[in-house]
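User: Hi! I have a protein structure encoded as tokens and I'd like to know what sequence might fold into it. I'm fairly new to this, so please keep things simple.
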């Protein structure tokens, strides 16, 4: 089955939505937040109306066509996770005000949709209050099966953090949705037709060891944690090359 991948790679260096009244939005180009990428970000041609957004602790490439991220890039380490462990999450979801209204998801799109608002960069990865608050931007969300979000996917997020706590240095994590090919049925939610992914991926790359792997999970209640696929297989399936090869 052929998939096309959408990911959000834009970093917000300012508080957003309800937080933007006290902080000004800054970088809207990956050239302003290259630290979140292990190499040059890949060129995405499958989707339209792409925008790069810079957040304090992650970067998002957003598609106005799908109203979701294409991929979300993070650079994590043990110190960052330790700093954020005591911070409380407030679960204040908000639409991303820096996106045109016609290109962004709204809170009402998810209401009674049957899908949860699935973080690509999890709040549990954030090391600051501002980063944790920004992680609730809908630009960082995809419609995700609730059982998958709270089950197998949550385990993968926790396992990834456990690995990072043992790592010798920074670890790059890139997460995004996988959408069905053009010859397959596409599901959307809400008045803004936010596209529902068929699957979700999480790429983990440790520069200190050179090791990389990719979790590739169907967006379904029955999904269980399985062995990750290789980075080479990920590139073959998606055409996205994040590691400069």
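Assistant: Happy to help. Inverse folding works backwards from shape to sequence: for each of the 245 positions I chose a residue that suits the local structure. Here it is:
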């Amino acid at each position: 089955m052929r998939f096309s991948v959408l990911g959000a790679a834009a970093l917000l260096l300012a508080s957003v939505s309800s937080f933007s009244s006290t902080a000004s939005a800054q970088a809207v180009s990956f050239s302003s937040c290259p630290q979140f990428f292990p190499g040059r970000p890949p060129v995405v041609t499958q989707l339209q109306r792409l925008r790069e957004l810079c957040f304090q602790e992650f970067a998002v490439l957003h598609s106005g066509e799908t109203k979701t991220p294409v991929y979300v890039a993070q650079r994590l380490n043990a110190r960052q996770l330790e700093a954020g462990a005591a911070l409380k999450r407030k679960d204040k979801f908000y639409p991303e005000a820096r996106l045109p209204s016609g290109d962004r998801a709204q809170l009402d799109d998810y209401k009674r949709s049957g899908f949860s608002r699935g973080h690509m960069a999890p709040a549990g990865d954030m090391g600051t209050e501002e980063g944790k608050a920004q992680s609730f931007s809908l630009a960082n969300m995809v419609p995700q099966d609730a059982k998958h979000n709270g089950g197998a996917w949550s385990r993968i997020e926790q396992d990834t953090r456990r690995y990072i706590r043992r790592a010798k240095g920074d670890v790059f994590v890139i997460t995004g949705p996988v959408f069905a090919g053009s010859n397959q049925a596409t599901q959307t939610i809400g008045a803004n037709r936010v596209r529902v992914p068929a699957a979700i991926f999480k790429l983990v790359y440790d520069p200190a060891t050179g090791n990389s792997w990719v979790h590739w999970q169907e967006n379904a209640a029955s999904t269980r944690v399985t062995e990750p696929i290789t980075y080479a297989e990920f590139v073959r399936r998606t055409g996205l090359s994040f590691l400069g090869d």
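A useful reference point when you look it over: Helices lie at 78-84, 107-110, 129-134, 146-150, 152-166, 231-238. Feel free to ask if any position seems puzzling.
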